[in-house]
Structure formats: structure tokens, C-alpha cells
Design goal:
The complex is a heterodimer of chains A (about 280) and B (about 120).
Chain A lengths: L1 H17 L44 E4 L14 H16 L2 H5 L23 E6 L2 E6 L4 E6 L16 E7 L2 E7 L19 E9 L2 E12 L8 E10 L33
Parallel strand pairs in A: 4-5
Antiparallel strand pairs in A: 1-9, 2-3, 3-4, 5-6, 6-7, 7-8, 8-9
Chain B lengths: L1 H13 L18 E11 L6 E7 L5 E7 L3 H4 L14 E8 L6 E8 L5 E3 L2
Parallel strand pairs in B: 3-5
Antiparallel strand pairs in B: 1-2, 1-4, 2-3, 4-5, 5-6
Classes of the chains: A alpha+beta (about 280), B mainly beta (about 120).
């Protein structure tokens, strides 16, 4: 067994060092699942770049603070199957107002687990945008989360590994950034407790400055999900520009005193665990 | 200012997306406890800053309370610094206590001896 493991380890080391598929112990080209890395270079990473294209983009500099009180109340989603059952259960817990019940609305393995899309957009912390040719990068201050939105014409992947933030492509329609995101994890939350999506969800965001106030950013969301939604569900987020702060570091593991117990309830450690 | 704070919290309680680390459901948000205290520890950390204070009740029993705040990222915009408190400082704290009765809570505000008010926002 050890011998096998060491051989696999050696093969892995060889693969890393040589950058080429390694030969299996039974002989070359037998049963290797290794595939060649992609050779297509998309414009965001191309050797030739046109920075002048950035001049035509709107000015989104600064930090954008969420304005949850400004957004209209989201419409009631028309949910399907197990997603509807989950929604109904959480809504009844919320309506009860009972603190014990409210504690049960959180279903995370760790309070330090970031929400992923679209929750990354609505945390009570700032977001900021960076424009580089062929790409928009968004940084959320909480947990220092990063979203990459490729605007260089690449397509969505056909069979993405589901991830917290998914895979996002975008294009500019005038001063509006239109973003399409797929590849999100099964069971992710769409913005309010209990509204969850499947791994087939597709989110379209239209993000733009408020024509009446250039210091207000608006993100209009349309969720489509053949498994979880009977009809597209819409929500809108508002943000206010801040120019006097920069984002600060946020390491959630630094002093997390809110573990989630085996019942799924958030706990509160009164004792100081810090050295 | 206080009204805004409470309404934001109420909103946070209803909207999962407005929360970062955890909800406020573990605290009795309708109850404010105000007490004179002595700081025993002050942690300027994420995901929350924490203040530990010793409070002496009417019977003379001393209890150490763990009071959770938001994060340094937010507190700095409301006048807090990592040096705002040190062990031994006298302070009057107002907090929402834990529902489960343990000696902990969510800080509402800390009032210094010179009447300076630091709100947990």
C-alpha cells in the first residue's frame, strides 16, 4: 500500500515538475485521465492589450455601501418542489418571531462560510469594482471575497464545477454592465432566507449608476432556475458611493466565537479563546 | 440615530442577505441592559470585535460579560479605534443580553467617564 502511495506521489511530482501527463506504472498512455491544459488565450490575458478601451467605461471608483432600506421589497418567488418546501419552512420560522425558531433559519456549517453569489452582493459591508481590459473584478470587504466577471467575449463554461461565486461573463450595454452567472452551488441562497436555488440557476444582473444620482449604484437581478423557480424571480440592490474609506482586512478565522453546533444552531462562546 | 440602528437590525433579522457572520436571533433585541462596568479585555478582531467587562450586581456578585460588537471595519467609521479600551477602564455599557441567559450580549453602546458615547454600529 505504501509503495503504491509513494508511486502515486512520485507520479504527481513528476506531473507537476514536467508539466506533462505522467506515465502510469503499467506503461505509457494506459489509463491516464490527464488532459491537456486549455490552449485558448482569451483577451483578458492576451499578450496584446488595449487600455484605451477603459476610457469609455463609467466611473465606478470608490466603495459602494449597501442600502438595504432603499431597495424595494422583493417579489414573492414562485418556487418548485423541495425548494418551495424549504422556503415555506423558513418563512414560517421567521413569522413565528420566536428566537429559538429564528436561530434555526441559519443553515451553514460555519458562520465564517461566505455566502457566495448572490449573497456576496448584499453583505453589510462595502464592495468595490476594478476595471481592467476584458474583465471587471469585484471585491467584497467581508471575508475579502472576490468576483471575477470576464468581459472579453468568452462563453460560459459548458460543465462548470459548482462554486460559491459561480462563473460570470459580462458585457457593456452603454453604461450598464450586464452579467450572466452560472455554475453556482446547489442550495445557495438567492438573497432572502429560505429562497434557495439549484445548481442550474442562471442569474442576470444589470448593474448601472442611478441616472439621477451618480453616487448611487443599482443592481437589478433576474434569477431563472428550471428546478427551483416556476417563473423568473427579480430583486434589486442599491449601493451608495463612499469616497473617504478604503476596505480593511477581514479574516473571519481570526476570532470566530460563533460556532454552529450539531443541531445547526449558532452558539456564542463567552470565554475568550484568544491567546 | 438610535432609531436607525434598531430599524437596521430589524431589517437584518428579516433579510438573510443583510447578515455577514450570524443573525441577531440569539440576543433579546427588545431588552436593553445598562450597567457600570470595568473592562477586562478588548479584542479588536474580525469577524467581531469583543469587549469583556466585569459587572457587579446588587448583591455584590461580580460576573464577567462577553459583549460582541460589529467588526473593526465598521466600528472605525463610528469613532472606535483598537486603542478605545484597555483593561481597567471604567465604562457604562448598554447591551442586548443573550436569550439563553449566559453572560454575553450584543453591545449597543459604551459610554466613557467623560460622557463620550461609542455606538456599536
Amino acid at each position: 500500500m505504501m509503495r503504491r502511495l509513494s508511486q502515486v506521489g512520485f507520479a504527481l511530482a513528476f506531473l507537476c515538475a514536467a508539466g506533462a501527463p505522467a506515465a502510469g506504472q503499467e506503461g505509457a498512455n494506459s489509463g491516464s485521465a490527464a488532459v491537456a491544459p486549455p490552449d485558448k488565450v482569451w483577451p483578458a490575458s492576451a499578450p496584446i492589450v488595449d487600455f484605451a478601451a477603459l476610457k469609455s467605461l463609467p466611473d465606478w471608483r470608490g466603495l459602494w455601501a449597501p442600502q438595504p432600506g432603499r431597495a424595494p421589497k422583493p417579489e414573492i418567488p414562485r418556487m418548485l418542489g423541495k425548494y418551495k418546501a424549504h422556503y415555506d419552512e423558513i418563512q414560517s420560522l421567521i413569522k413565528s418571531g420566536n428566537p429559538e425558531d429564528l436561530l434555526k433559519t441559519e443553515r451553514r456549517a460555519s458562520a465564517c462560510e461566505p455566502p457566495g453569489m448572490p449573497g456576496i452582493m448584499t453583505q453589510p459591508y462595502n464592495i468595490e469594482f476594478l476595471f481592467t481590459p476584458g474583465r471587471v473584478t469585484m471585491i467584497q470587504e467581508a471575508y475579502m471575497q472576490v468576483r471575477r466577471i470576464f468581459t472579453d467575449g468568452r462563453p460560459l463554461p459548458e460543465d462548470p464545477d459548482p462554486t460559491y461565486n459561480g462563473f460570470s461573463i459580462g458585457h457593456w450595454e452603454g453604461d450598464t454592465l450586464v452579467v450572466t452567472t452560472t455554475g453556482l452551488r446547489e442550495g445557495g441562497v438567492m438573497g432572502r432566507w429560505g429562497i434557495t436555488h439549484s445548481d442550474k440557476v442562471k442569474l442576470t444582473e444589470r448593474i448601472h449608476l442611478d441616472p439621477a444620482d451618480k453616487d448611487v449604484l443599482i443592481a437589478e437581478n433576474t434569477f431563472e432556475d428550471p428546478n427551483a423557480l416556476a417563473a423568473p424571480w427579480h430583486s434589486t440592490y442599491y449601493f451608495k458611493r463612499q469616497r473617504t474609506f478604503d476596505q480593511l482586512e477581514f479574516i473571519c478565522a481570526q476570532n470566530d466565537r460563533n460556532p454552529i453546533n450539531e443541531n445547526g444552531d449558532v452558539e456564542f462562546i463567552t470565554g475568550d479563546q484568544q491567546p | 440615530m438610535r432609531r436607525t440602528y434598531l430599524s437596521l437590525l430589524a431589517l437584518a433579522a428579516l433579510s438573510g442577505g443583510a447578515l455577514a457572520h450570524h443573525s441577531f436571533a440569539m440576543f433579546d433585541m427588545k431588552k436593553d441592559v445598562t450597567a457600570e462596568a470595568v473592562v477586562t479585555d478588548f479584542r479588536w478582531t474580525n469577524p467581531h470585535a469583543w469587549m469583556h467587562v466585569e459587572i457587579t450586581d446588587a448583591k455584590g456578585v461580580k460576573t464577567n460579560w462577553a459583549l460582541e460588537m460589529t467588526s473593526p471595519n465598521t466600528l472605525v467609521t463610528h469613532g472606535w479605534r483598537r486603542s478605545s479600551f484597555k483593561p481597567g477602564d471604567k465604562v457604562t455599557v448598554t447591551f442586548h443580553p443573550l436569550v439563553n441567559g449566559k453572560p454575553g450580549g450584543a453591545l449597543v453602546k459604551a459610554v466613557l467617564p467623560d460622557k463620550t458615547v461609542l455606538e456599536n454600529r
